[in-house]
């Protein structure tokens, strides 16, 4: 599909699966194969890309925030790259399916000694771990470093399984963790490529996560729940499964995800609340029992009372390929098994493709209906391709047809600030859709909200279908600045 070189040195180009057709049954389509390459650098380098699958009529290098100057001669595109690490997406001829994902890392100067105690080292080559006899399983343990070197492809997933808390663990390296494993003997227990449960003071950085279509049990890139003091930095993820979420963080305190890239076919950058167990699927919904877990107690005494506080995504990129109503680039919906989600949000985010919603704050049918969302900040978000349904869905009310929440007090959403939100609509055929703010919602403030090139300065402009297209309940306090 592509040839890529950096300062004249050719890179390995990997074919990767994505799901850009918005259909559960199309993720195995060969037309949904994209490309990925990565390299380490310092200073300034010259990148040369040759497109081989089509004649180039047009192209965009995302995120446009970087304003990288490039030149094209026939099918060859060149540009200079400098500064901090960057994750780029090259879209050719308006085709989201055959993109090139280019991940530029800083030079690695602190690789661990493979002979050091507490280091689990995967060097260049292909590896298939099998902890506990499970193909692909890597157990996460306290005071251990799992290192995936550049040039390594580890077929598997990393989980912490027992009840002992994990402390001071590190997952790092410039190589690839690939979910493609030869067997599927574990049923529904292993849902995530990296799962942190009851972990603290733990770091995940630099690795590339590829979630292939042929392992439908592995869904999320990362699930971080019942954790404290977690750092995720410069992680890159491409997923094609029908529920290939990016990062799911819930019932945690002090978690930061920085300088990372997530592309998937579902929710991408998520802040939620999860039950305190690895055995309950989706952090609160028991598929086998067919019911939800109450706020405290419940099946086997499962707890769901740890709050979500101080969780932030910063300087990240989100690509949501799912254009349906439940594909969300920035997601604070669905699982909310916690009494409080507070002091959380998003800073300096590039939403290259928004999916169904750009931002969604709305607990759904697997959630506790009494969760309070308070003090939420969304600051400096740029949306390249608008969503299929709404930019904003901020909703706190009873849900029709959901028997498990009928008659209960609805959740509350309050003190939400959305600042410097820019949506760029480059298509003459598409226009950004309506936004909804409904139910028990109070004190929502928009500052410098620009949609389709126009700044929305008051409520009248917001609800005008020709301008903002908002639907706002009369009793909801919303301010535009």
Tell me what the structure shows.
There is one protein chain. This protein folds into 2 domains: 2-106, Dextranase, N-terminal (Dex49a from penicillium minioluteum complex, domain 1), CATH 2.60.350; 219-480. The protein is 1% helix and 51% strand. It has 1 helix and 43 strands. It has a 20-stranded mixed sheet that branches. It is globular, with a radius of gyration of 22 Å. Residues 279-302, 400-409 and 427-432 have low confidence and may be disordered.
Topology:
Blueprint: E1 2-6, E2 9-10, E3 14-17, E4 33-41, E5 45-51, E6 59-62, E7 70-73, E8 76-81, E9 86-92, E10 95-106, E11 119-122, E12 125-127, E13 137-139, E14 145-148, E15 152-155, E16 157-159, E17 166-167, E18 170-172, E19 176-178, E20 192-197, E21 199-205, E22 208-211, E23 220-225, E24 228-233, E25 236-239, E26 247-250, E27 253-258, E28 261-264, E29 269-272, E30 285-286, E31 291-292, E32 308-320, E33 328-334, E34 340-353, E35 357-363, E36 372-385, E37 390-396, E38 412-423, E39 435-439, E40 441-451, E41 454-456, H1 459-463, E42 470-472, E43 478-480
Parallel strand pairs: 4-10, 11-14, 12-15, 13-16, 14-18, 15-19, 16-20, 17-21, 18-21, 19-22, 20-23, 21-24, 22-25, 23-26, 24-27, 25-28, 26-29, 27-32, 28-32, 29-33, 32-34, 33-35, 34-36, 35-37, 36-38, 37-39, 38-40, 39-42, 40-43
Antiparallel strand pairs: 1-2, 1-5, 3-4, 5-8, 6-9, 7-8, 9-10, 30-31, 40-41
